[in-house]
TrEMBL record:
SMART domains: AAA. It holds the Pfam family ABC_tran. Residues 6-240 form the ABC transporter domain. Keywords: ATP-binding, Nucleotide-binding, Transport. InterPro entries: AAA+_ATPase, ABC_ATPase_HisP-typ, ABC_transporter-like_ATP-bd, ABC_transporter-like_CS, MetN_ABC_transporter-like, P-loop_NTPase. Belongs to the ABC transporter superfamily. It comes from Falsiruegeria litorea R37. This is Glutamine transport ATP-binding protein GlnQ. GO terms for molecular function: ABC-type amino acid transporter activity; ATP binding; ATP hydrolysis activity.
């Protein structure tokens, strides 16, 4: 992978006439962990969704691993094959077992054999510490376990970059830490990660770069020490005082 994993240059997006992203500039180096926070409606989800073309930007440049994201289906496919995404809602297939959920992508999109896909699925279920849940259906698992399955499902596609959009926001409080622990382990193993979260303990532990968004703009960015120690903008100070 090239040194710069993700690059956004002057990215702008509108929903109809609503200017949702305004000149977003963001660079994520390979192995780097970026945490994005900010008030609800500030455009955090839209940024991460633009990176793998779940949403389309109208102006500016997005590159992943040196590949520019354009309307060319080859560009979109190439980028999606490098980028995994974990959502607030786990989006697992309820009628399939955990194992089948994990095998689906590699078989369909990567064309690997069933037995290879099964071995891979078990490998990543072990990595998120729930190999014993392989034969259950998602509905039989706790929310924290389901989100770890969703993370394992992403890992089965062997992405170069993982995007997380508020992965613990839908979880009961007692299940948040089991998911964050898995994410910390991934971070420590060197995964390139962009994480939208308000879990500031996690952010302090793993972030190389903290981004604060408000009203479609990146208002502030810096190391966790800079960010938490001396936020410069009043908007960021206010946000931190509300959540810390
Ligand atoms: P965040 O993730 O920071 O809460 P979002 O990126 O989801 O913010 O949304 C940013 C703004 O764009 C919000 O005002 C939201 O209502 C609006 N928005 C999000 N998705 C759409 C959409 N599909 N169509 C129109 N407006 C949208
Ligand atoms: Mg959001």
């Amino acid at each position: 992978m090239s040194e710069t994993a993700i690059e956004l240059v002057d990215v702008n997006k509108w929903y109809g006439t609503f200017h949702v992203l305004k000149d977003i500039n963001l660079s994520v180096q390979t192995g780097e962990k970026v945490v994005i926070c900010g008030p609800s409606g500030s455009g955090k989800s839209t940024v991460v969704r633009c990176i793998n073309r779940l949403e389309e930007h109208q102006k500016g440049t997005i590159r992943v691993d040196g590949i520019e994201l354009t309307n060319d289906p080859n560009s979109v496919a190439a980028i999606r094959s490098e980028v995994g995404m974990v959502f607030q809602q786990f989006n697992l297939f309820p009628h399939l077992t955990v194992l089948e959920n994990l095998m689906l992508g590699p078989i369909k999109a990567r064309g690997i054999s069933k037995s290879e896909a099964e071995a891979k699925a078990m490998h990543y279920l072990e990595r998120v510490h729930i190999p014993d849940q392989a034969l259950k259906r998602p509905g039989q698992l706790s929310g924290g376990q389901q989100q770890r399955v969703a993370i394992a499902r992403s890992l089965c596609m062997e992405p170069k970059v993982l995007l997380f959009d508020e992965p613990t926001s839908a979880l009961d409080p007692e299940m948040i830490s089991e998911v964050l622990e898995v994410m910390v382990e991934l971070a420590q193993e060197g995964m390139t990660m962009v994480v939208v979260t308000h879990e500031m303990g996690f952010a302090r532990k793993v972030a190389d770069n903290m981004i604060f968004m408000d009203a479609g703009e990146i208002v502030e960015q810096g190391t966790p020490d800079e960010f938490f120690g001396s936020p410069r903008s009043p908007r960021c100070q206010k946000f931190l005082s509300q959540i810390l």
